[in-house]
Design a protein that fits this description.
By secondary structure, this protein is an alpha/beta fold. The protein has two domains: 144 residues, Rossmann fold (3-Layer(aba) Sandwich), CATH 3.40.50; 186 residues, Dehydroquinate synthase-like - alpha domain (Dehydroquinate synthase-like, alpha domain), CATH 1.20.1090.10. Helices cover 51% and strands 12% of the residues. It is built from 16 helices and eight strands. The chain has a six-stranded parallel β-sheet, with helices on both faces. Strands 6-7 form a two-stranded antiparallel ribbon. Strand 2, helix 2 and strand 3 form a beta-alpha-beta unit. Helix 8 packs antiparallel against helix 9. It binds NADPH dihydro-nicotinamide-adenine-dinucleotide phosphate (NDP), 1,3-dihydroxyacetonephosphate (13P) and zinc ion (ZN). The site of zinc ion has 8 residues, from helix 12.
């Protein structure tokens, strides 16, 4: 008997373009969302775009969050505003959107995602990435009902946020390799469609690298489309596997060892140079990944991340512990191998 089933949750409306933040009210009406919204945002996005969002949803309350953590989510859902909210609006980068996603799940209401930076592929995904103690959870949550991505706002954001988004996409190459490896060695379920979509997204972004330039709104357009596509791959897969492998484990570990030092996307980009080397050795594609990162101005070394060599090596040797996700890191990379990997790939300099 055929007994497979799947339930793919995707956003209903994805609105991308110049000035579309002013179409937020229309987008909400199109979804038939009624009642009181609550805006979840962080300081900079609130300052930059909070008033334009509030103008579209008069009377909406705002909660400002600073960090992605389960405490932040608890704090949000325990407020009187959250109790009374009929739907949430997540405004900002990856952190406030992840918190809003989880909070919407907890209070069982819809979410509209309004990203202010093209810095991460969580703007559409049905996942939240939340640290807790020594670990980092990739939690299933309903994806946003709608995404309103204003390329004018995103293009004005600091350039490094856009290059971080590009690097988050480029890291899909190694994430998919890790996923296939886990399928072969641990029988982890693999989706050909999600894997192919994720790889194709990285391929198309790299092919467009020449058009991705600072102060060019077209760049934000190209990157947002890739971020949406990568988020959809995660939703099809029902896991973040298409976009998160060993390179993400290393980045999550760096967040613990050297907090707030570098952007998520930049960390995963540098880490993917090393995990590509671990997958395929010196003849593999690690130089192509480094070249792709360089072509969009993303960091390729620990020094450019402003992370010390010791912190980088600690992250590489301990990243396998952070989550039960089988990757090329296996049961751990020892210090000599980590040093070899990081120096051969030029991520750190030889002593
Ligand atoms: N759920 C998922 O599938 C995914 C989740 N993620 C998660 O997302 C996070 C990374 O996303 P990222 O966006 O880098 O993180 P943040 O939300 O921390 O944003 C990065 C920085 O950019 C600032 N910022 C945001 N928008 C603007 C703007 N328009 N102009 C100027 N500054 C701006 C933020 O300000 P402020 O400090 O005020 O917030 C913050 O300092 C990580 O926690 C990661 O794990 C990443 C990918 C996928
Ligand atoms: O950042 C992600 C994809 O780009 C997903 O994060 P996780 O590694 O926590 O699943
Ligand atoms: Zn990521």
């Amino acid at each position: 008997m055929f007994d497979k089933s799947t339930w793919i949750k995707l956003p209903r409306n994805v609105v991308v373009g110049h000035g579309v933040i002013d179409e937020l009210g229309e987008t909400i009406a199109d979804l038939h969302l009624t009642g009181d919204p609550l805006i979840i945002t962080s300081p900079t996005p609130n300052e930059l775009a909070g008033d334009r969002v509030r103008a579209q949803v008069p009377g909406a309350e705002t909660i400002i969050v600073e960090t992605a953590s389960f405490e932040s989510i608890e704090r949000v859902i325990e407020t009187a505003q959250a109790e009374e909210a009929d739907y949430l609006i997540g405004l900002g980068g990856g952190k406030p959107i992840d918190i809003a996603k989880m909070a919407a799940d907890e209070i069982n209401c819809g979410l509209v995602s309004v990203p202010t930076a093209a810095s991460h592929d969580g703007l559409v995904s049905g996942r939240s990435s939340i640290p807790e103690g020594d670990t980092r959870h990739s939690v299933a949550a309903d994806p946003p009902l709608a995404v309103v991505a204003d390329t004018e706002i995103m293009a004005k954001a600091p350039w490094e946020l856009t290059t971080a988004g590009c690097a988050d996409i480029i890291s899909n190459y190694t994430a998919v390799q890790d996923w296939r490896l886990a399928n072969r060695l641990k029988n982890v379920e693999y989706s050909e469609y999600a894997g192919a979509l994720s790889e194709m997204t990285a391929e198309m972004l790299v092919d467009s690298a020449d058009s991705i330039k600072p102060n060019l709104e077209e760049s934000a357009w190209i990157v947002v489309k890739a971020l949406v596509s990568s988020g959809v791959a995660m939703s099809i897969a029902g896991t973040s596997r298409p976009a998160s492998g060993a390179e993400h484990l290393i980045s999550h570990q760096l967040d613990r060892i050297a907090p707030n030092q570098a952007l998520h996307g930049h960390q995963v980009g540098v880490a993917s140079i090393m995990t590509e080397y671990l997958h395929s050795g010196n003849d593999g594609q690690w130089r192509a990944i480094r070249k792709a990162l360089k072509s969009i101005d993303a960091p390729t070394t620990a020094a450019e991340l402003e992370i010390s060599d010791d912190d980088l090596l600690e992250a590489l040797t301990t990243a396998h512990e952070i989550r039960d996700r089988y990757t090329i890191l296996g049961n751990g990379v020892n210090l000599d191998a980590a040093y070899q990997t990081a120096t051969v790939t030029g991520v750190i300099e030889r002593d």
